[in-house]
Amino acid sequence: MAKQTKNQKAIFEKIEKNKKYALTEAIELLKEVDYAKFDGSVEVAYRLGIDTKKNDQQIRGAMVLPNGTGKDQTVLVFAKGEKAQEAKDAGADYVGDDEFIQKIQGGWFDFDVIVATPDMMGQIGRLGRVLGPKGLMPNPKTGTVTQDVTKAVQDIKAGQVAYRADSAGNLHLPVGKVSFTTDALAENVKAVQEMVLRVKPASSKGTYIKNLVITSTMGPGIQIDVSSI
C-alpha cells in the first residue's frame, strides 16, 4: 500500500475508528475526506450474514437508483427484426447480432451492458468465456435477457445497477458520484437498503446486515449505522 501523505493522513484522522455514523453524517464526511482531483464514484459495501453456498441464499438482481449513478451506460443489444428496432428507438448505443458477436470475439468491448432477447442466447453462449469473467453475460435475473428490450434499455439508461453477493456474502453497489448532493446520495442509499431488506433469504439465520460501509474512489471507508437509514 502506498505511503499516505501528511494531507491524506490528516483527512483519514477525521474518521473515528469503529464509529458507525448516521447516513447523512457519513455522506457529508465522505465528501469532506475525498481527496481526488476528479469526480469520484461513491459505493456502498454490505457484509451480509448469508451462506452463498446454499442456492436459496444467493442474492442477485438489478435495480434502478432514484437519482442514477452519474455515469452514462453504453448499451449493446442483441436482437433481430422488430425487437432490434425497438432497442434502437429506446436509445440503445449498438444493436445487432452476428456482426457484434464477431467484434467481441476480436476483442471489442466498447460497451458497459449487454441486453439480449431470449432467442439470441444460443448464439451469445459461445461468448461465455470472454463475457463471463468480465461480468457482462446477459442474465434473466438482472433483466438483461428479456423480450421487453425497451424497458431494459430505458432502465439501464436511467441508472440501473446490477448486484450480486460474492462467495463471502459481500455486496457492492455504486450509488452515485461525490458531486451528487447529500440528499441525492442518501436517497440512492435508502433505495439500496430497501432492496437489500426485500431480498433477504428466508433461510438466513442470525444477523442479516453485519456491516455497511460507504466509500468514494479515493476516500477511506466510513461505517454507516444501519438503523439511521
UniProtKB/TrEMBL annotation:
Lineage top rank: taxon: Bacteria
GO molecular function, one term: tRNA binding
PROSITE patterns the UniProt entry points to: RIBOSOMAL_L1
Keywords: Repressor, Ribonucleoprotein, Ribosomal protein, RNA-binding, rRNA-binding, Translation regulation, tRNA-binding
Pfam families: Ribosomal_L1
GO biological process: regulation of translation; translation
Function: Protein L1 is also a translational repressor protein, it controls the translation of the L11 operon by binding to its mRNA. Binds directly to 23S rRNA. The L1 stalk is quite mobile in the ribosome, and is involved in E site tRNA release.
InterPro entries for the chain: Ribosom_uL1_bac-type, Ribosomal_uL1, Ribosomal_uL1-like, Ribosomal_uL1/biogenesis, Ribosomal_uL1_3-a/b-sand, Ribosomal_uL1_CS
PANTHER family in the cross-refs: 54S RIBOSOMAL PROTEIN L1, MITOCHONDRIAL (PTHR36427), LARGE RIBOSOMAL SUBUNIT PROTEIN UL1M (PTHR36427:SF3)
SUPFAM superfamilies the UniProt entry points to: Ribosomal protein L1
A GO CC annotation given for this chain: large ribosomal subunit
Organism name: Aerococcus viridans
Protein name (database record): Large ribosomal subunit protein uL1
Family: Belongs to the universal ribosomal protein uL1 family.
